[in-house]
Sequence to fold (366 residues):
Amino acid sequence: MNFRTLFCLLLCVCFFSVVSAQEQDSLSVYSYQELNTSYTKFQFSNPKKATIYADAILKKAIREKNDAEEHKAYLLQSRSEAYFGNMLNALALAEKGILYATKQQDHDFYVEAVRRKGMIYYDFGKYDEAVTYYLKIDSLARVTDNIDYLIDSNQSIGAVKTVLGDHKSASKLFLKNEAILAPLQNDPNYAVPYLNTIIGLCSAYTYFDLPESKKYLSLIKEISVKTDDKDALSYYYTLKGIIFYLSKDYTSALQTLTTADSLVTNLGRKRSLFPIYRFQGKAYYEIGAFEKTIDVYEKIKELRKEIDFDHFKYQEIIATLALSYDTINNLEKAIENFTLAQELFKTNYTIKQAINYDIFNKYDQK
Fold:
C-alpha cells in the first residue's frame, strides 16, 4: 500500500469518525421519549442506526444522572450486542439491568431484564441457561396474574419447547398468546410480541401442519412489508425456504434461502445465518450435491468459532457433514466429523435431559 492510498484511508476514517461524533452530539438535545421512539423506529429496519440512539440515551442519562433511563439504555445496548453476535457483552449489560431492578424492587423492569438475559442465552444456543431465566418470569406471571408477564412466559417456554422438538406443545402456548395479542396488534406496546408469536406459530407448525404454517408465513410477510421490518422479512424468507425444503421443492428452497442469506448478511445478524446454511446444506444433500453440502457446512464450522449457537442442530449438521465426506471418499474428514458428532450427541443428551426435567417439574406440573 503506497503513502497516498494510506493517507486517503486515514482521511476517510477520520471523516466518518467526525460525522459519527457530530451525529451523537446532535442527538443530545432530544428527549428520552424522542430517542426511544427513534430507536424503536430503526430497531428492525436498520439495527446499526438503532444502536446510535441507544448510545445517545445512555450518554444523556449518565450526563443527567438519571439511573432509570441509564439502565433502560443498558438493555437496549444489550439487545444490540446480542444482535451483532457479542454474547458476553450482551449478558453483562442485561445483568446490570437485573441488579438495578432488584435494588429498586421494580418488578416490571426486573422481568424485562430477566427476559433479555434469557433471550441472549437462547439466541446463542445455551438453552439450559435460558430456561433458568424463563422460569423466573413464569413464577412471577403465576403469582401476579400480570398479562405482560404471562405473554413473556408463554413465548419463552414455547420457544424452548420448539428447540426440544415438542412443537405441538409449543404451538399451544403461542396460540394462547395469539388470543391475547391479536386484538392488541396495532398497539405499539404489543406489536413486537404479536409478531414474535406469529413467527413462533409459523416455525412450530412447519414441523407438523404445513398449511397452518403457510397461513402464518403470509402474516409475517404482511407485517414486515407494512412496518418496513427487514428483520421480520429475513425470518419470512428463512421460514419460506424451510417450508420449500420440507415440501421437497429443493430448487425453490435454495433460491429462497439465498434471498434470506442476503438480507441477514446486510442486517449484520450473523447468528441467523445458521438456520439458513443448515437448510441449504440439507437441500444440497438431498439433490446429491455433496460437495456443496460440505462447502456450506464448513462455513458453519467457521462461523461457530466466532459465534456460539444452537448446539442441538449443530450435532445434525456435523453428522451430515461426515456422511457427505464419506460419500466423496474423504475418509479422514468423515471420521473426524463423525467423532465430533458423537461427542456433541453425548453433551446434548445431558443438556436436553436437564432442560426436560426443569420444564416438566417447574412448569408442566404446576
